[in-house]
Write a structure and sequence with these properties.
Number of strands of chain B: 18
Helix content of chain A: 10-25%
Distance between the termini of chain A: 5 Å
CATH topology of the largest domain in chain B: FAD/NAD(P)-binding domain
Largest sheet of chain B: 8 strands, mixed
Order of helices and strands of chain A: EHEEHE
Order of helices and strands of chain B: EHEEHEEEEHEEEEHEEEEHEEEHHHHHH
Number of strands of chain A: 4
Shape of chain A: globular
Number of helices of chain B: 11
Shape of chain B: globular
CATH architecture of the largest domain in chain B: 3-Layer(bba) Sandwich
Strand content of chain A: 15-25%
CATH class of the largest domain in chain B: Alpha Beta
Strand order of the largest sheet of chain A: 1-4
CATH architecture of chain A: 2-Layer Sandwich
Oligomer: heterodimer
Radius of gyration of chain B: 21 Å
Largest sheet of chain A: 2 strands, antiparallel
CATH class of chain A: Alpha Beta
Helix content of chain B: 25-40%
Strand content of chain B: 25-35%
Chain lengths: ~55, ~400
């Protein structure tokens, strides 16, 4: 998963739906741990800014 | 080590929103040493909130002060998909807050009771001993990584809660149990009716609604929440909000925009060992309205008092800490579950049924019409929901 930092508002909605805890907020940025990610795409669907895409 | 802070506190609260500050205040008031860690440079920013709250809801927690009140609300106006509308005045008065000022006032109150607030303090993990017991919090403060020991952690870290996950509580939401939201603060328009407006419809806000919360006679928070499972590529919440703005407010100016997520599940899993979750982190939000300020403060009071009792009795066992979820359940459990079933009913309604619902409610005399009459109309053909409504009236001691 890839976050477009120009679109992202760092609201954390993506982190709230991640079933494996692969998304955290750190230093005012969304950080996605792609090794943990199971590619369920929930974060892509829920992101209000539509800032997340598949790599 | 930062000079203001100690290496040990009875309780560390993570997050200085309303639920965190109220937790800290009640824990401190009951004799505990409390540290609040806030990631941002001050409490209350950024504001990801429509800022509406009921008068009776906030009264137990802070003296009403006009410095954090933007406007008074006397009722609500519901707009059905076909453009019919329905006014409702019998739910008590409310306010649209200035959350920046309100959140600071709550944090100040906690500090005045003895809590310590540290801003720019980003919690990054919970520390554990060899037995796996949680012994403290690791956080980043400017360039330093700091470890603080404590007996109890209260996670008030919002919808994205990391504290719950660190403690082993599954806080992940299904897509249908979160609303994905976008809000504009709009200027140069006319909001003189002292009403909050809600617009429903599959085309308007699938799985959610659009709200208007007036902050003054010319400014309002206008936002949308749609079901997390209702988005499509290129059609997130902002897509629908822009259509609405073009239709109703083509000439007003948009000052700010925020995105956010609102949990719409009745949370029930918010304690593990010596970690308590409160507020959005515990999904303590009214599933229908999305309002969470008052729920978060109620939870904060219960969590703060319970944590303080455990510290005072030097007994951080499940038996004592369970008092927090038990008190929540007694006061709001049935109400939250009922709201959740109503939410699912509402959100599944085709536009035609929503139109019929508004027409039916319009026949109820204005001075008798309230939220519960609306719900009664909603569930008329559903005996299971009717039973839940009855239970919630009996069990719930407070309607939020």
């Amino acid at each position: 998963m890839k976050v477009d930092k120009n679109l992202c508002d760092v609201c954390g909605t993506c982190a709230s739906v991640c079933p494996v805890g692969a998304i955290i907020i750190r230093e005012f940025d969304i950080v996605i741990n792609n090794e943990k990610c199971i590619k369920c795409n929930k974060c892509i669907r829920v992101c209000p800014a539509q800032a997340i895409t598949e790599e | 080590m930062h000079s203001k802070i100690n290496s040990f506190y009875d309780i560390v609260v993570i997050g200085a929103g309303p639920s965190g500050s109220v937790s800290a205040r009640f824990a401190a008031e009951n004799g505990c040493s409390v540290l609040i860690l806030e990631r941002d440079r001050e409490p209350g920013i950024p504001v990801r909130c429509a800022e509406g709250v009921s008068h009776t809801g906030i009264l137990p927690f802070i003296e009403i002060d006009k410095k954090w009140i933007c406007s008074k609300i006397v009722g609500a106006k519901l707009h059905s998909p076909n453009g019919e509308s329905l006014e409702m005045y019998n739910n008590g008065d409310g306010y649209v807050l200035d959350r920046r000022v309100f959140d600071r006032a709550l944090a100040d109150l906690a500090v005045s009771k003895g809590a310590t607030l540290l801003t720019k303090a980003d919690a990054i993990d919970l520390n554990k001993n060899d037995k796996g017991e949680i012994t403290g919090v690791k956080f980043k403060h400017q360039n330093e990584i700091i470890d603080i020991n404590c007996k109890i952690v209260i996670g008030a870290d919002g919808v994205e809660s990391q504290v719950g996950r660190w403690a082993g509580i599954d806080t992940s939401l299904s897509l249908s149990d979160i609303d994905t939201c976008c809000q504009y603060t709009v200027n140069n328009a006319n909001f003189e009716d002292e009403l909050c407006h809600f617009y429903f419809g599959r085309e308007i806000a699938p799985g959610g609604y659009i709200w208007i919360f007036p902050k003054s006679k010319t400014q309002a928070n206008i936002g949308i929440g749609i079901g997390g499972d209702m988005t499509k590529p290129g059609k997130g919440p902002r897509y629908y909000l822009d259509i609405f703005m073009d239709k109703y407010f083509p000439n007003s100016s948009i000052n700010y925009m925020v995105y956010g997520g609102v949990p719409t599940r009745a949370g029930n899993n918010f304690v593990k060992d010596n970690v308590l979750l409160v507020g959005d982190a515990a999904h303590q939000v009214n599933p229908i309205t999305g309002g969470g300020i008052v729920q978060g403060m109620i939870a904060g009071k219960f969590a703060g008092e319970t944590a303080a009792k455990a510290i005072r009795e030097n007994n951080i066992s499940k038996k004592i800490l369970k008092e927090y979820p038990n008190r929540w359940e007694d006061m709001l459990g049935a109400n939250q579950r009922f709201m959740y079933s109503i939410k699912n009913k509402f959100m599944d309604m085709p536009d035609e049924k929503l139109n019929n619902l508004v027409s039916a409610c319009k026949k109820i005399p204005q001075n008798e019409f309230n939220l519960y009459k609306l719900f009664k109309e909603t569930i008329k053909e559903d005996p299971v929901l009717l039973a839940k409504l009855a239970t919630s009236f009996v069990v719930s001691k407070l309607k939020v």
